[in-house]
Amino acid sequence: MADFSEIIDQGQLKEHMQNALLADKISHAYIISGEVGSGKEFVARIFAKALQCESREERDGYTEACNTCPSCIKALNDSHPDIITITHEKPGSIGVDDIRQKLRDDVVIKPYESKHKVYIIPEGEKMTPAAQNALLKTLEEPPSYIVIIILTSNINAFLQTIISRCIVLPMKPAQDDSIKKYLMEECQVVDYKAMLCASFARGNVGKALELASNERFENLKDSTIDLISKLERLEIHDIMDRLHALLAPLEEEAKTAKKGIDPKNFEDFMDILIFLFRDMLVYKATENPDHLIFTDKLSYIRSVTVNISYEKLNEIIKTMDQARNRINSNVNIDLVLELMLIAIKGYIYDKSNRR
Ligand SMILES: [Zn+2]
After folding, report:
1. Is 262 left (phi over 0), alpha (psi -120 to 50) or beta?
2. Strand locations in the chain, DSSP E?
3. In degrees to the nearest 10, what's the CA dihedral of 142, 143, 147, 149?
């Protein structure tokens, strides 16, 4: 039963919606923009439910839907006749016919039973220019009862004339601490894992939830750190073989993946390495395991940090940042990874570096 009180952070956005509900000053069109996984649709549905509720109430410091009136029950069951989601036939685009049939021809029909008629358009950036122009006609002369909520991960895809007729509400990255608290309290994720997932999600609640519920990430983390700990003993071709096995895409994604490496695995792999060496820096400075992200790898972190200087740790982090930049600029991904791992091996295990 989603309510405003359950939206993590997003203070400005919540304040705007709350003020609109309290003053009963509802705009005809909103754009909620934010990356995939940031919770745009979650927020839109809470707002839509509250808009349609027959007897809103004050709860936990928010103006909330009552969750018990007939309108709320239908909204909670996703069967509210006056909360309409604009779906599209082609997966890659929202065409002019989608907007004409499901929105333009429909807005003229008054709401069945509510004060408003709410249209939610997910993946709004997929609207073709013709679809946007069709939408614009409605935005120029909206019937009094309509509220259109466009969700998008790329607001730059919209015509300026659309943006100027909408109230734009950006989703901001949530705080790590807020995400951690949410994972622990609402999803029963254990302390260290909640911290790890929150750090990796970079403010994206959807990503944090995915990481917390997903064995892929846990396995990748263990295998990555295991591989680094074996750098000293293994030849570089063995390391690359293992790395390829580690980063291989799922079978159904293999066709589109770059050079047999899954981009999602690769991103997480680089993040894991960077966080691992940051942990080493932190441990070297504080000798306090409480501040680490990989608290479960304490013995390995300790064994490396006793033998390596701050300078070398910083060099490793710099090397990894450079490697990531090179890979983003489309050079040979294998070669960059190979050079990076050889460099890390040198920094950690070359005896002349020790201090
Ligand atoms: Zn209600």
Report:
1. beta
2. 29-33, 57-59, 62-64, 83-85, 117-121, 146-152, 167-170
3. -30
Is 159 inside a domain boundary?
Answer: yes
Does the residue 181 lie in any domain? no
Q: Are 143 and 108 in contact (CB under 8 A)?
A: yes
Interval between CA 50 and ligand 1 midpoint (Å): 7
Residues 6+ apart with CB under 8 A from 238: none
* Token digits of residue 186: 């609402």
CA 64–ligand 1 middle distance (angstroms): 8
CA distances from 211 to 6, 88, 225, 291 (A): 20, 29, 17, 21
Q: How far is the CA of 68 from the centre of ligand 1 (A)?
A: 5
Q: Which of 147-161, 197-211, 276-290, 339-353 has the highest mean pLDDT?
A: 147-161
* CA 33 / ligand 1 centre spacing (Å): 27
pLDDT tens-place string over residues 311-324: 999 999 999 999 98
> Using CA atoms, how far apart are residues 218 and 119, in angstroms rounded to an integer?
39
CATH number at residue 285: 1.20.272.10
